[in-house]
Amino acid sequence: MSFIKITEQDSHYNDLEQKSVRELLEDINTEDRKVALAVRKTIPKIEELVLQIVPRMKQGGRIFYLGAGTSGRLGVLDASEIPPTFGMPPSVIIGLIAGGDTALRNPVENAEDDEERGWQELQEHQINALDTVIGIAASGTTPYVIGALRRAREHGILTASISSNPDSPMAAQADVAIEMIVGPEFVTGSSRMKSGTGQKMILNMISTSVMIQLGRIKGNRMVNMQLTNQKLIDRGTRMVAEELGLPYSQSQHLLLMYGSVKDAVEAYRHKRLK
């Protein structure tokens, strides 16, 4: 099949500058409603990927996200939320963006066009066959990502891609190609919109389901979350109190002593059994 760049097709809406604010917001929302449906169609592929990631991570494997621009920022964002949410070290899911940390706030000229740099950065992290590399690019044509996926695959590393165009060059380098076809953007070519929203949803689905499979959630609670502010300490205290049937003050003492809901509950129950 020929490669169709849907992400660059003309918007379904014209004369945007002549619309009222209400019209703009309603039209953007109309387009955004298409995203969840497009993501839903990719669930079988996301499932295929997660089922391959989990056994690798149980043996010490990691996930690497690679992207440029909005796609790279979303990968870094998802990776950065894993330690506070699930109590995992920051080395378990790593986000790499073309141009490095500078590119998180400012565009770095030509960074995404370097086909070798992504693989070099993966090597700096001593990437190995237990790891997984997930390329993120709405267009599916970013050289920084394509080159990294190609080299990773050559070394027997599991590769996946998240794109908004069917049959892209990036997907051709992925063992699992997640193709979320959201259609033309509200502002022609502005893939920070529907494509970015869908990428965030898919990254949430991958990382959250992997962490649950790795035992980082109990029931529906973040029992391993980091206690980095008063809100999280309060939330954790209430979890301990509910789980053990203890007063708030005693629950908070246990939580702060052991550092996580899971450890506090297990320690208390272990002492009771002695």
TrEMBL record:
<comment type="pathway">
    <text>Amino-sugar metabolism; N-acetylmuramate degradation.</text>
</comment>
<dbReference type="Pfam" id="PF22645">
    <property type="entry name" value="GKRP_SIS_N"/>
</dbReference>
<feature type="active site">
    <location>
        <position position="112"/>
    </location>
</feature>
<comment type="subunit">
    <text>Homodimer.</text>
</comment>
<dbReference type="GO" id="GO:0016803">
    <property type="term" value="F:ether hydrolase activity"/>
</dbReference>
<keyword id="KW-0119">Carbohydrate metabolism</keyword>
<dbReference type="InterPro" id="IPR005488">
    <property type="entry name" value="Etherase_MurQ"/>
</dbReference>
<dbReference type="GO" id="GO:0046348">
    <property type="term" value="P:amino sugar catabolic process"/>
</dbReference>
<dbReference type="InterPro" id="IPR001347">
    <property type="entry name" value="SIS_dom"/>
</dbReference>
<feature type="active site" description="Proton donor">
    <location>
        <position position="81"/>
    </location>
</feature>
<dbReference type="GO" id="GO:0097367">
    <property type="term" value="F:carbohydrate derivative binding"/>
</dbReference>
<dbReference type="GO" id="GO:0009254">
    <property type="term" value="P:peptidoglycan turnover"/>
</dbReference>
<dbReference type="InterPro" id="IPR040190">
    <property type="entry name" value="MURQ/GCKR"/>
</dbReference>
<keyword id="KW-0456">Lyase</keyword>
<dbReference type="GO" id="GO:0016835">
    <property type="term" value="F:carbon-oxygen lyase activity"/>
</dbReference>
<protein>
    <recommendedName>
        <fullName>N-acetylmuramic acid 6-phosphate etherase</fullName>
        <ecNumber>4.2.1.126</ecNumber>
    </recommendedName>
</protein>
<dbReference type="GO" id="GO:0097173">
    <property type="term" value="P:N-acetylmuramic acid catabolic process"/>
</dbReference>
<comment type="similarity">
    <text>Belongs to the GCKR-like family. MurNAc-6-P etherase subfamily.</text>
</comment>
<feature type="domain" description="SIS">
    <location>
        <begin position="53"/>
        <end position="216"/>
    </location>
</feature>
<dbReference type="InterPro" id="IPR005486">
    <property type="entry name" value="Glucokinase_regulatory_CS"/>
</dbReference>
<dbReference type="InterPro" id="IPR046348">
    <property type="entry name" value="SIS_dom_sf"/>
</dbReference>
<comment type="function">
    <text>Specifically catalyzes the cleavage of the D-lactyl ether substituent of MurNAc 6-phosphate, producing GlcNAc 6-phosphate and D-lactate.</text>
</comment>
